[in-house]
Specification:
TIM Barrel; 42% helix
C-alpha cells in the first residue's frame, strides 16, 4: 500500500535536500521524494545514493523524481515522472517489478492517459498556487478534485499536491483524494508530519468507506 503522505524534498543544495530528507524520516515520514532539478547526472546519482542510505536507515520509502534509471541504480522504491519526462510504459520496462511508478496530472485527460499506462499512483494538482514549481497549471481547488474523481472512478491512489497546508487535509480527503504531497509546509516545520499522518489515518474518503 502506498503511504498517504508524500514529502517532496526541498533545499538550495543537494546537501540541504538530504538534510531535509533525514529530518522528514526522523519525524515519521513514510515516503519521501527526492526532487532535484537542473543538476548533472553524476551529482544526481551521488545524492540519490545518499538519500537511499538515509531512507533505508529509517525504513522510509524513497521515490526519485524524473530519473527512472537512477531510481533503478540505487534501488529506490520507485520513480515519479512529470508530464515532460519519460513515459511510464518505457520506465516500466526498465525498472524492477517491485518498483512503483507515479505520474503528474493536471487534467482529466492527463489522469486517463496515466491510467492507461498503468501507473501506481497519480500526483494531481495544483490544489492552489505554489512557488515551488514553475509554469504552474490552472489550480484545481476542492471542486476540481471532486469533479475529476467523480469522473475517473478509479481505485488508483490520487495524491493531491500544490500549496497544501495542514488545514486543507480533511476537506481534500472528503473530496475523494487518497493522500497528500507536501513540500514547503513540512520543510518549515517537520513536526507537522505527525499531525498530517494522524489526519490522513483518521479521516475516511468516500472511496474507502
Amino acid at each position: 500500500m502506498i503511504p498517504k503522505l508524500h514529502y517532496i524534498s526541498q533545499g538550495e543544495s543537494p546537501e540541504k535536500h538530504l538534510d531535509n530528507i533525514k529530518k522528514a524520516c526522523a519525524h515519521g515520514a513514510e515516503l519521501v521524494q527526492l526532487r532535484l532539478k537542473n543538476l548533472d547526472e553524476a551529482t544526481l546519482l551521488k545524492t540519490a545514493e545518499k538519500a537511499r542510505a538515509i531512507t533505508m536507515q529509517y525504513k522510509t520509502r524513497l521515490i526519485i523524481n524524473d530519473h527512472y534509471k537512477i531510481a533503478k541504480a540505487v534501488q529506490a522504491d520507485g520513480v515519479h515522472l512529470g508530464k515532460t519526462d519519460s513515459s511510464p510504459t518505457e520506465a516500466r520496462k526498465q525498472l524492477y517489478s517491485w518498483q512503483i511508478i507515479g505520474g503528474t496530472a493536471n487534467t482529466l485527460q492527463d489522469c486517463k492517459a496515466l491510467l492507461e499506462k498503468n501507473v501506481d499512483y497519480i500526483g494531481l494538482g495544483p490544489f492552489r498556487y505554489t512557488r515551488t514549481k514553475h509554469n504552474l497549471s490552472p489550480i484545481l481547488g476542492l471542486n476540481g478534485y471532486a469533479s475529476l474523481l467523480e469522473s475517473l472512478k478509479t481505485t488508483v491512489p490520487i495524491i493531491a499536491i500544490g500549496g497544501i497546508t495542514i488545514e486543507d487535509v480533511t476537506a481534500l480527503l472528503q473530496s475523494g483524494v487518497y493522500g497528500i504531497a507536501a513540500s514547503q509546509e513540512l520543510t518549515i516545520d517537520f513536526n507537522k508530519i505527525q499531525l498530517f499522518n494522524k489526519l490522513l489515518q483518521t479521516t475516511t474518503s468516500p472511496e474507502q468507506v
